[in-house]
Write a structure and sequence with these properties.
8 strands; about 150 residues; two-stranded antiparallel sheet; globular; alpha+beta; single chain
């Protein structure tokens, strides 16, 4: 009986990890282009993490700028993971598309890290701020189509 439970939980984890790796915005399995997810909350800015301070959480690798941030993440990873798999929150809400981000263009919305595209005179955070409530509802619904 215990063996069956272990096999089922391992299979479920493997499926979850594979699904997350396929749907998240990753560069060589690393989230947020190597930026520290906890620093957005604690330092209120984007801080590059170090590959020597990496952990893998359900198939997604995160880098951290300090041991304290790494430990904070481990205690409650879902608090610090970026919304919409790290894709542009505005694009997820406006069109339901996965669009690359600039990790230095972000906003904490309802306690969650949202990232935005910002290049070629197009800062989608500005557009998001004009209709945040509506775009957030649409982004939440659209993300469920990719990852539910």
């Amino acid at each position: 009986m215990i063996l069956i439970l272990v096999l089922l939980s391992t299979t479920t984890f493997a499926q979850t990890a594979a699904k997350r790796s396929a749907e998240f915005n990753l560069e060589k399995k690393v989230a947020i282009q190597g930026y520290d997810p906890v620093a957005y909350f604690t330092k209120k800015k984007a801080v590059k993490g170090k590959s020597t301070m990496a952990i893998s959480y359900e198939g997604v690798i995160y880098y951290f700028s300090s041991q304290t941030n790494k430990e904070t993440f481990v205690k409650n990873p879902t608090n610090y993971e970026p919304q919409y798999g790290g894709w542009c929150a505005y694009a997820m809400g406006a069109t339901g598309e996965k669009v690359e981000v600039d990790p230095e263009t972000f906003k904490i919305v309802d306690g969650k890290l949202n990232l935005y595209y910002n290049a070629y005179f197009n800062n989608t955070l500005k557009s998001w701020n004009k209709d945040e409530v509506n775009l957030k509802k649409k982004a939440d619904a659209n993300w469920k189509k990719f990852f539910n």
